[in-house]
Amino acid sequence: MKGVVVELGKRLSQSLSKSNLFKPSPCPWSASQHRGVKVNAIHLRPGNVIEKSGRVYQIVESEHKQRGRGGASMQMELRDVDNGNKVSLRFGPEEPVERVFVEEKSFTCLYTENNSAFLIEPETFDQLQVPLDLFGKSATYLKEEMKVRLQLYDGRPLAASVPKRVTCTIKETQPPMKGVSATPRYKKALLDNGLTVQIPPYLDADEEIIISTEDDSYLGRDYVPQSVTLQVVLMVVETHAQEQHRFEEFIKDSLKQMSDKMSIMDVNMKDLGVRL
Fold first, then answer.
1. Is the separation of the CB atoms in 78 and 88 below 8 Å?
2. Taking Cα atoms as reference points, which of 33, 13, 26, 14 lies closest to residue 126?
3. Rounded to whole angstroms, what are the CA distances from 187 to 65, 192, 200, 221?
4. Phi/psi of residue 200, nearest 5 degrees
5. CB-CB contact of 276 with 214 (8 Å)
6. Which tens digits make up the pLDDT trace of 218-271?
7. Which of 8, 119, 242, 256 is such that its CA lies 20 to 30 A from the CA of 51?
8. Is the pTM of this model over 0.70?
9. What is the CB neighbour count within 10 angstroms for residue 151?
């Protein structure tokens, strides 16, 4: 079914690209998209849009630097919204900078192809082709029917983001290491999107898990509960599995410590016997 939806999306995208019906047009400034707001440079963050000397830039990187007696400064790498060129500028921490607020809209991902993502606006059905670079490293998580968010300036996409939590399927897991008696706290796993992450050792291939797209960390198993009660039960089972694993690790560590102490005592006794 998904294959049919994707194929229809591709055909619709090709047909709409030949017409002017859904081509974006410059939109007027609204309450969420306006100029003339002054903020101190120290409050600016990557992704923010500013206006400087008649040019509009998006902040790529921002770093606070201390120059000894010369005072502090904000070193920023900026990308020109019109031509894509990058420039480096320095501001004083308290220097007022004109910030341009952009519009945020929700889209649905149809498919990805040739370093591009094809999106559709769910209310107007407008389609948009954007480079995967807008998503940064999070582009790895893009999949069909995923809800994403775009930052737009005068109808042009500046940045894109995926949900902070996504569901992935484990394709392969790291095999047990030979000669290692203690169970490791985590093992490597290859996900269906090609990403390698660290997961608890009790998880196996083909299981669905929740991953944080911010740091690629494991958050838990993915469940589709039929009721709140079932959801609570599944959460308890997950917690019990984690606690049981910790308890087993505690027992193993305790036994190892006892064994080490017994060995030391045995050596001391033998040494005492020799002296006597």
1. yes
2. 13
3. 39, 16, 6, 15
4. -60, 150
5. no
6. 998 886 554 555 566 666 666 666 676 676 777 777 777 777 767 666 655 655
7. 119
8. no
9. 20
